[in-house]
Amino acid sequence: MTHLTLQAVTRRFGAAYAVDSVDLNVPDGKLVCFLGPSGCGKTTLLRMIAGLETPSSGSIEFAGADITRVPANQRDFGMVFQSLALFPHMSVAQNIAYPLKLRKTPKPEQARRIAELLELIQLPHMANRPVTQLSGGQRQRVAIARAIASQPKLLLLDEPLSALDAKLREAMQVEIRLLQQRLGITTIMVTHDQREAMTMADEIVVMEKGRIAQVGKPLDIYREPVSEFVADFIGLGNILPVTYDGAGAVSLPGGLRIAVSQAARVPESTNDIRLLIRPEDVCVKAATDAAGPNRLAGTVTFIRDVGASLEATIDCAGFTLTAATTPRETPGLALGMPVLAELPPHACKLIAARAVQ
Ligand code: ATP
Fold first, then answer.
1. 87: helix, coil or strand?
2. Which of 167-181, 213-227, 267-281 has the lowest mean pLDDT?
3. Cα 40 to middle of ligand 1, angstroms
4. Chain centre distance of CA 4
């Protein structure tokens, strides 16, 4: 069992709580992302798991043992941080060999392992190349190979792709994910990029001001966010203030009634709720279509057409909706055009409003 369990883990800096009473279970072999805006405590939480920071209170257990106060170098975890810190004066192979040397792994075993890792990261012919002569993506792969060289039971990644350009970053996301799945190594990755978390994670831990706002599978969090903060942070969303009428419908600003499905959860504080509908769930119809329930008249005020997908901003007296569609689905859509925006009841979620700051 290599299960990681955090109980009420807290880190204060002076009077400020960087991490506030976090409980978390990280299942074996999974990739878990800590996701949240800058300053929400992701890195501090990861550093406590790594042993680079000591909790003010709470406990961290790994494989059944309390490691809360075990120093980093005795935890046997692999780490890759934002600043890669490969040794610039060393070759690729020497960098990968470094943790093996520290452990006094016998030379033949080191050579075997380096060859294996070079195959794994698809750089088999680059063993002797100085790391300064590698591309950003290649360096990233070497950093990961070095982190997993000594077969750690836990791999910790802190924004490992943040220095890469968008295209390479997307390619590396897939590469790291495939590698992680092939090795079955339990991995925790910090990111503030929701798309990256959605692409890579088995589970996402959304953090807000040092606390966990929600934990779940990426699509569950996307479809059933527990709050306005989570809904807003994960993906694009139309978030509208509404009042609940207690009979399966809500009223929008201006009094328009919108039916919501039975399954929609009504937050306990029914006074302060929001209607969430994702752009891909908003159906754009011709203004000449029959009016009907959940169909709102509006005008197209902006179109972002990038070929494969199309995003339309629709002004509906008093609020604005974003609809995601494709040029094929809505041919002829043009600026200034009157349309009907249909909000299917099953796609209308009710969530608690963000607390006033
Ligand atoms: P980012 O995405 O910007 O890296 P983060 O979510 O990783 O942010 P942390 O770096 O964990 O956030 O910081 C959480 C809070 O704790 C911040 O308010 C930060 O200023 C504070 N903090 C972190 N380290 C220290 C420190 N050594 N001393 C004082 N305050 C700190």
1. coil
2. 267-281
3. 7
4. 19
The residues of the chain that CATH labels 2.40.50.100 are 236-352
What's the fold here for domain 236-352? OB fold (Dihydrolipoamide Acetyltransferase, E2P) (2.40.50)
Span from the CA of 56 to the centroid of ligand 1 (angstroms): 15
Nearest CA to ligand 1 atom 10: 43
Q: Distance between CA atoms of 164 and 317, rounded to whole angstroms? A: 42
Q: Is the pLDDT of residue 194 over 60?
A: yes
Proportion of the chain in helix, strand, coil states, percent, rounded to 5: 25, 35, 40
Q: Which pTM value belongs to this model?
A: 0.88
Report the residue among 13, 192, 196 best suited for mutation to probe ligand 1: largest number of ligand atoms under 8 A from its CB. 13
Residue 230 has pLDDT above 80, yes or no: yes
The fold of the 4-223 domain, in CATH, is Rossmann fold (3.40.50)
> Across the chain, what does the average pLDDT equal?
90
Q: State the span(s) of the chain assigned CATH 3.40.50.300.
A: 4-223
